[in-house]
Design a protein that fits this description.
The complex is a heterodimer of chains A (68) and B (177).
Chain A (H helix, E strand, L loop, with lengths): L2 H27 L3 H35 L1
Helix pairs in contact in A: 1-2
Chain B lengths: L16 H5 L5 H6 L2 H17 L2 H12 L6 E5 L8 E5 L6 E6 L5 E5 L10 E3 L4 E4 L4 E4 L5 E3 L8 E7 L2 E8 L4
Antiparallel strand pairs in B: 1-10, 2-3, 3-4, 4-9, 5-6, 6-7, 7-8, 9-10
The chains are: A mainly alpha (68), B alpha+beta (177).
The complex binds FE2/S2 (inorganic) cluster.
């Protein structure tokens, strides 16, 4: 995965998670608890994806710069 | 340009122009606010947003375990002529509710905390609507859905049963048509 892809993935997860927070709160207030679980699961998966994309970016960013 | 021709805030200690050329590069800022720091914060924001949904799902799991379908006596039919309403609590003592005998002769009940900011909702006989006085929210008395004003969600509907002239609350749908 290139560094650029990591950037893109992280920004996509931000957009995704903003939407998921909104939907989770909305269904929590409507007491639609099954939906809360689904949206929040997606949010957590999004957080993990962002984290791994970040780790990957870090690996590439810093190994490359130590070479040159 | 020598130092003397510059405005005060741009003047640097050094008399050498070559050094002063670099004056606009603040090394400290450059190390703090750069592309890498930006990506790190972006990743942090994304992770924080994703994880912030977790408390809701924990509460949701606790909420799913609750069972709230008790049959509770509310009132007698003769206490409630057409166009009248009365308050009660359902399903717990902390959930205020409103029982309405509408102008068209139907019995309906809703939790009366407004879905905007929880002010109590009243039945307005003249217009046959539910009114929240706080920010002028109106709800349809037949289905509890918002008609006007700030509320966005419907009022939770309480299911009723009439048995030998006594009105019972038998359940509730939080989201409904
Ligand atoms: S609290 Fe009911 S309209 Fe604001």
């Amino acid at each position: 995965m290139s560094k650029k892809k990591c950037w893109i993935i992280i920004f996509i997860t931000i957009a995704l998670n903003v939407v998921m927070v909104q939907w989770t709160v909305e269904s929590y207030l409507g007491r639609e608890y099954e939906k809360v679980l689904i949206f929040s699961a997606i949010g957590v998966v999004g957080a993990f994806i962002a984290f791994f994309a970040y780790l990957n970016w870090r690996k590439r960013e810093y190994t490359q710069s130590s070479k040159d | 340009m020598t130092n003397n021709n510059k405005k005060g805030r741009n003047r640097k200690e050094s008399p050498s122009d070559m050094v002063n050329l670099m004056g606009n590069v603040e090394q400290k800022d450059d190390l703090t606010y750069n592309r890498r720091a930006f990506l790190k914060s972006a990743a942090g924001v994304s992770i924080a947003l994703g994880l912030s949904t977790v408390p809701f799902s924990v509460r949701a799991m606790m909420g799913m375990a609750e069972d709230e379908n008790e049959r509770v006596e509310i009132a007698h039919m003769d206490q409630l002529p057409k166009g009248e309403s009365l308050t009660f609590n359902y399903p717990t003592d902390n959930d205020p509710a409103l029982l309405v005998h509408t102008m068209s002769g139907e019995l309906v009940a809703y939790n009366s905390a407004c879905t905007h900011l929880m002010c109590p909702v009243f039945y307005k006989k003249e217009t046959d609507t539910l009114l929240c006085p706080c920010h002028k929210g109106y709800f349809d008395v037949n289905n509890g859905h918002p008609l006007e004003g700030p509320p966005q969600r419907e009022l939770p509907m309480i299911h009723l049963e009439v048995d030998a002239n006594t009105i019972y609350a038998v359940g509730r749908s939080y989201r409904h048509e």
